[in-house]
Design brief:
Layout (H helix, E strand, L loop, with lengths): L3 H13 L18 E3 L3 E4 L10 E7 L3 E9 L23 E7 L6 E8 L4 E7 L3 E3 L7 E7 L2 E9 L12 E12 L4 E4 L15 E6 L5 E13 L4 E15 L2 E7 L27 H4 L8 E2 L2 E2 L19 H9 L7 E10 L3 E10 L9 E11 L2 E12 L4 E15 L2 E12 L2 E15 L2 E10 L10 E2 L4 E12 L8 E14 L9 E10 L4 E9 L2 E3 L12 E3 L2 E9 L6 E12 L2 E15 L2 E20 L2 E19 L4 E22 L5 E4 L6 E17 L2 E15 L6 H10 L3 E9 L3
Antiparallel strand pairs: 1-3, 2-12, 3-4, 4-10, 5-6, 5-11, 6-7, 7-8, 9-10, 11-12, 11-13, 14-15, 14-43, 15-16, 16-19, 17-18, 18-27, 19-20, 20-21, 21-22, 22-23, 23-24, 24-25, 25-26, 26-28, 28-29, 29-30, 30-31, 31-34, 32-33, 34-35, 35-36, 36-37, 37-38, 38-39, 39-40, 39-41, 41-42, 42-43
């Protein structure tokens, strides 16, 4: 009996405490049987030396998901537990953190990043195309932290249902994992694998783990209600909708949304853009941010699918109406479209993946909604992945039907060499366009990486109905080489040094010389966490094939030599503050320009941070397109100011006050005409000087009731005002968009998970 009782107590204890509680304390008996990882390497700087900060990670699997327990050794007075907004880049958190990156399929096509800081704030992202981090995605996972003496601890739980996974046969699933830790006061990062996202191949180097092949399924409903009051019109609107995420099994996922919210709680960055190139904005709407990465086919300046097109500005054709109705049509245009329904389905089989996406806009006054469709096929064998992505957009108002077909290739020849490529075809009504991209990434050793890329888009290629492309009519040969040094002597003040050489030879599709350039950049990181960065590039004489917007009789403008030199300094990451300074000198278009920028972040406590930034730019001879082949040259001044406050009562309560203001003046105008040979000829036309005032002001309170369940209270005010005048008081210009806003609203939003 004396032997039986202890055994019985032990059994019952194990049974009672069989579930790990996510509380930031590694005190449950389940951790005793967990797999332990304690070998870490220095991956920033990229020395790959053994880590000199002891780190232990425990990994425990269950039928619900994977538990990770971190034990991080560090002197207590150096631990930084500042709280921050979700998905803040680790270089800006001013906090110590640990993270897990998981490739559930083990094929390096898609991975997921989860990190938690010592203060309990979190971040997550999807890792696309080996090394591209997309922080718009938010996952449903749990974490907690605690600090005890010269250690801090973190627990992370990742459910099997968090992401679609490729079907794998048998009782076991192969998963690749990378673990990391950031020491903020030294600006150093340690990882469990010898890989860095800046060094070409990254996800493919994660360590392989074997888990039981659990069958995961989940059905989650996210209804929302939004109450908004437009203070300009005194109108109140109530809007409801829902997102549904159904993980049918481990490899099948069905998502749907009804009447999704276009925004209200997240404002875009203020951008002043007079160029021919459209500004790209990411999509933070939950359904589209969670759209499986299976549909992700992109490069640096183009995306086959840009979900911001869905629910964007409606199409209008007011000219088809009679005069009186034309006026009503022009005066009642909306800035965005309501979406009746959007859905996606993906199935990832052992060697073949399939996905479908559809979205349907509601009709608006004087407009019919657009319909969007996409089909994705992908197959992987050994080191090679082939894929097809096709899109179709129906735009009935414009009587426009746009198709895009794309084929993509991803070939891992070796751990050092990777080849990727794309073939693209667009069919808009009956007009076809073509393009391709081929890229080679080579990482011969720990200190060097090279990238070589050829891109060709003909004049008729057009993917912008559902995608994004910064320009067509392009032939580009681009190369980048990175050289990193991390093996400095102990007495050296330098921690890491990186040099980057880049070149870009550009022509139009038919070979007409465009604005090519060559450049050199360097970054020195010091052991006190300060840094100095410089960048310079030179453009020889060439042509600007964008500025005249493809005007038939003046398709380009000749450009003289151009250059740009910039220098930036980042202060040491002090516990209570840090700052950055930037200066830039450039020669562009018809004159010279100078830019100065300063940014200061003050951290009075772990729950409060204040950021101030100001950018001043002067440029003479700034060339701006007006119409057809008419351009204006101006002396330009632009001031941009940012002020932001973030306060956290705890990890559930967040208050953010953010103001971005722009004051822009264009003075001493001179009119030019571009002739058919690209020469600029002075015109005796009187052009008006003008000013631009732009404001985005927002006060946002967010309460997280449960993971991905939020209550928002948001006040927004702002807009853009363009005036043709001589006003030079920049403070007065700042005030215009505040005094006469385009937006002045209060929004209450509740989104809850069932």
């Amino acid at each position: 009996m004396k032997k039986i009782i202890p055994l019985l107590v032990c059994f019952l204890s194990t049974y009672i405490y069989s579930t790990i509680e996510i509380d930031g304390k590694l005190d449950e008996p389940e951790w005793d049987s967990a797999k332990e990882i304690n070998k870490f390497y220095e991956i920033f700087p990229y020395s790959l030396k053994d880590a000199d900060f002891p780190t232990k990670v425990l990994i425990k699997e269950t039928d619900q998901g994977i538990f990770f327990g971190f034990s991080s050794s560090q002197k207590k007075d150096t631990i930084r537990a500042n709280q921050h907004q979700r998905d803040t880049h680790f270089m800006r958190t001013n906090a110590d953190l640990v993270g897990v990156m998981i490739d559930f399929d083990g094929n390096a096509l898609t991975a997921f990043d989860f990190y938690v800081s010592a203060g309990g704030s979190i971040g997550d992202a999807i890792i696309k195309n080996e090394q591209q981090f997309d922080g718009d995605w938010d996952g449903d996972w749990l974490s907690a932290t605690s600090i005890s003496g010269d250690h801090w601890y973190a627990e992370i739980f990742i459910p099997w249902s968090i992401a679609p996974m490729r079907f794998q046969r048998g009782e076991l699933r192969k998963v690749k994992i990378g673990l990391y830790r950031v020491i903020n006061y030294q600006n150093r990062m340690f990882g469990s694998v010898k890989a860095n996202p800046d060094m070409g191949q990254f996800v493919s180097k994660f360590e392989e783990f074997t888990f039981k092949n659990y069958k995961a399924s989940a059905l989650n409903f996210y209804p929302y209600i939004t109450l908004s009051n437009d203070r300009l019109t005194s109108q109140t609107e109530t809007k409801t909708g829902m997102e549904i995420f159904w993980k049918i099994d481990s490899s099948k996922q069905l998502n749907a949304t009804f009447n999704p919210d276009f925004g209200h709680v997240e404002s875009d960055e203020v951008v002043v853009n007079f160029s021919a190139v459209e500004t790209y904005y990411s999509d933070k709407r939950p359904f589209f941010a969670a759209t499986p990465t299976l549909f992700n086919v992109q490069d640096q300046h183009w995306y086959i699918i840009n979900t911001r097109r869905i629910g964007g500005t409606p199409d209008y054709n007011c000219s088809k109406y009679e005069e009186e109705t034309q006026t009503l049509c022009s005066n009642n245009q909306q800035g965005s479209s309501d979406i009746d329904l959007a859905l996606s389905y993906t199935q990832q089989n052992e060697a073949f993946d399939i996905g479908v996406l559809g979205a349907f806009e509601d009709d608006a006054n004087f407009s019919q909604g657009k319909d969007f469709y996409a089909v994705r096929l992908r197959t992987t064998r050994d080191k090679t992945t082939w894929g097809y992505l096709g899109t179709l957009v129906n735009r009935p108002v414009l009587n426009r039907r746009a198709k895009v077909n794309s084929i993509d290739l991803n070939y891992h020849y070796s751990p050092q060499l990777k080849l990727t490529g794309n073939l693209i075809n667009s069919i808009v009504d009956s007009e076809q366009g073509y393009g391709f991209r081929v890229a080679l990434d080579h990482t011969p050793n720990n200190s060097r990486t090279h990238n070589f890329k050829i891109t060709y888009f003909d004049k008729k290629l057009d993917i912008n109905d559902m995608g994004y492309m910064w320009r067509n009519d392009l032939m580009s040969i681009r190369s980048q080489s990175f050289f990193t040094q991390s093996d400095f002597k102990k007495e050296s003040k330098v921690l890491s040094r990186t040099l980057m050489l880049f070149t870009n030879l550009r022509t139009t599709a038919n070979g007409d010389k465009d604005s090519s350039f060559v450049g050199l950049a360097g970054f020195n990181m010091f052991k006190d966490t300060s840094g100095i960065e410089f960048e310079s590039f030179y453009k020889p004489k060439g042509r600007d094939n964008l500025i005249t917007r493809n005007y038939e009789f003046s398709p380009f403008v000749k450009r003289s030599e151009e250059f740009n030199v910039s220098l930036a300094y980042k202060s040491p990451a002090h516990k209570f503050f840090h700052y950055a300074l930037v200066t830039q000198r450039e020669k562009r278009e018809l004159g010279y320009g100078n830019t100065y920028m300063a940014r200061l972040t003050v951290i009075p406590s772990e729950t409060l941070s204040l950021t101030f930034a100001h950018r001043h730019q002067d440029k003479s001879g700034w060339l701006n397109w007006l119409q057809e082949n008419l351009l204006g040259s101006y002396d330009q001044t632009q001031k941009t100011t940012l002020a932001e406050l973030q306060w956290f009562k705890d990890n559930k309560h967040e208050l953010r006050v953010k103001a971005q203001m722009v004051a822009f003046t264009a003075r001493d105008p001179q009119a030019y005409r571009a002739d058919m040979h690209g020469n600029l000829l002075k015109e005796q036309l009187n052009l008006d000087p003008f000013t631009l005032s732009q404001l985005a002001f927002q006060v946002r309170y967010r309460y997280e009731m449960a993971p991905l369940s939020y209550f928002y209270l948001v006040y927004s005010r702002g807009g853009q005002i363009l005036e043709f005048d001589q006003e030079n008081d920049l403070k007065q210009i700042y005030r215009r968009s505040w005094s006469d806003p385009e937006t002045d609203s209060i929004v209450v939003k509740l989104r809850y998970k069932f």
